[in-house]
Structures are given as structure tokens and as C-alpha cells.
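Weekly structure sync, notes
Attendees: PL, DS, HV (note-taker this week)

Item 1: Transcriptional regulator, LysR family
DS walked through the input record. Source organism listed as Catenulispora acidiphila. Sequence as pasted into the shared doc:
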Amino acid sequence: MEIREVEAFLAVAEELHFGRAATRLHVTPTSVSQNIRSLERRVGAPLFERTTRRVSLTPLGERLLADLRPAYQAMEAALNTAHEAAAHHTASLRVAFATSMSRRISAEMVDAFRRSRPQCQVVRTALPTAALHAKQVPDLGDIDLFITWAPGGPAVLQAPGWVVGPVLATVPRALLVARNHPLAGRATVDAEELTDHPLFFMQSTEPASDRMAGYIDAWTPSHTPEGRPLNRVRHMNGPYVEELITTIAEGWLAHVTVEGLTEIYQHQNVTAVLLTGLPPIPIVAAWPATGHNPMVKAFVQAAIASQDGTPPLAGGRPGAER
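Item 1 (cont.): predicted structure, written out as C-alpha cells:
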């Protein structure tokens, strides 16, 4: 008996609907139907009664469900136990944070993970967000986990070969300006006020710049929330923050960014003003789609807890992975 047949049977038996079962299993309804028919051939009799209006279990299907469900749950429990055992034997987790991310945020996430998994060593480094877009399957060396920005939400961060996980936290927007800029010294600036000021707009020359386009547009929108066009000036090729800071210091461009950037890249002629009217930027986790470190789940759960105040599970089963 194939495991996919068992999973299809349990899903249809619990949902009593082939479409909902397919959604639950992340497959097509046709695939579910094929697996059910294959299982019925193995058994030698129908397991479901199907009409145009409803799906129900036959008496044989009800008996199989009663016998099969606890066996499947026991198998899942055994696999989870093995996964946890493997995680506890993992000596290290290599985590990269986006270069423009606040050290406070990265420290809070790492500290929360260390408290929940003290036996695991964290090796921390920094990478530009564009590293995920640089190649068809990004080569990030030995990185197990990348904590980075996802303006517009996780769907905007396209990363073939990598899983983009849940939102860990969000960070308010800020406007980076020179100290002699007309908007400098303000407590806040609303997005609608940006129409009269040219904005720094990064243009990537990476091979995957077409995939970068949605990311860049979400970071520096072309219009205000009320639909007024913004003057985005293409002023740099490549995602180099040091060059950005130097350009802003010249005084004529502003840059839409996040809080905390000036804590990392300090310049005597550059300051940041809180920007209202734009949604905060989400922080997400990304990890390799295959062969990922079993400690990834635990770090994601601890990182979320560090930002929302929920204590992470110490040695328990980590949060769900997407």
C-alpha cells in the first residue's frame, strides 16, 4: 500500500469532499481520485459512495478508517520523535541576516533560540537580500537559514529552490534623508508628502533582475496610497547599502526604508524620519527546499516568540513549517 493512497483515503474520509481533500494535501482532485481508485482495487471493494451531491463512506470504508487512522497517527508520532532526536543531535545552525536588519532584532531572535535550544551553536553572518534573487537556485554557501525582508509579503520574495516561511515580525517604515533635506528634523512624514521629493530607486543588474522587480517596487512604491505618482530616480546599480548612504548624504535624494538602518550604517550627514502611510516591512525566514537543517523549525518558532512576547518551546515540537 502506498502512503499517498493512505493519506488520500484519510483526507477524503474526514472531509467527505474530494476538492477539499485535494486542497488539504496540496494536490489536484484528479490525483486524489486516482489514489482512492487504486486503494479500492487493492481492497477489492468500494470505500466511498459517490453521488453528484455528496460523498460518504461505505461500511467497509468506515471500518478501514477506524483501523487505519490510529496506525497513521502512530506513524506520524514516530516520525516526529525521530525528527526531534535528529534536531537535538545537530551541533550548529548557520543563520544569515539581511545586512540592513537591525542588530537589536537579530540579537533578540538568536537569544530566544539559544534559550530554547542551548545545545545548538548559532553561527551568524550577514547577506544582502538580493542574494536570494541572484541565481535560478541561489547559492548561499553553507547557510541553513536566511532572515530577510519581504516588502509586500512573503509572496513577493521569489526564491526558486528555497522555502519562504512565515512572517516573523514587521518593522515600521522610515525615510532616510540628509540632515539639510527639507524633511529632516520632522517627527514624522506622511507618504503623501513624498510627491515633491525625488526618491532613491535601486535598479538591479543581477541576472534575475526581472524577479527583483516586484521586490523593489514593493520596497519603494511608484505611487502613494492615494494614487499620486512618486518621483523615483534610478540612481544605483546593485544593492549596496554603503553607496546608498553616501548618495543620500549628498542631500538631494530621499530613500524609503525601515526603522533602524541608521543604527547600522552611520553617517554624520544622514538621519531617519518615521514614515507613516505605508505598511510596515515584514521579516521572513527562508531555507533550502531540500535537505534543510532540522533546527530551522525551532529557530522560526523562537524568532516569532521573541517579537510577540510568547515564550518559545524549550525542547518541544517546533512551530509549523510552511
